[in-house]
Amino acid sequence: MVRARRHAGFTYVGLLIAVAVLGVGLAAIGQVWRTAAAREKERELLFIGNEYRTAIMNYYAATPAGLVRYPRTLQDLLEDRRTRALKRHLRRIYPDPITGSDAWGFVPAPDGGIAGVFSRSEQRPLKIAGFIGADARFEDAEKYSDWKFAYAPFKPPAPPAARKAP
After folding, report:
1. Contacts of 72 (CB under 8 A, 6+ apart)
2. Which residue among 8, 27, 36, 39 has the highest number of C-beta atoms inside a 10 angstrom radius?
3. From residue 136, how far is each of 41, 79, 91 by CA, in Å?
4. Can you give the pTM of this predicted structure?
């Protein structure tokens, strides 16, 4: 009987250790899942931001001659009624995947319209390098709101001033 009493607490201690190890493992899995979800939201933000940039570029390019302008609202990208035929530059108004809100920050255009959009999130992005194309300027951004998906039309450099003969 004495021998059975000495080993009675061993199972309990083993169970406590197993629960602790399981808890640490679940915490690690939770952290990995959270990071994966944040990376997916970043990929979605890059996709949606580029959709907005492309839609603004198409809106700007589709302006009738002499009336070049940026959209005044995001709704203008859904239904462009400046010509006889209705044009849709964007399928729908996408929500910001980082904040989950329909409220975007706007990059003002020189004519008072919308030149681009950005997330209003002040969180620090996980992705800080490896951007391509127009997104290359996002390298080392401090927060998601620094990722500005804006369209600026290409303007060729001005020709050098003609030199006067001495």
Report:
1. 112, 113, 114
2. 39
3. 18, 30, 26
4. 0.76
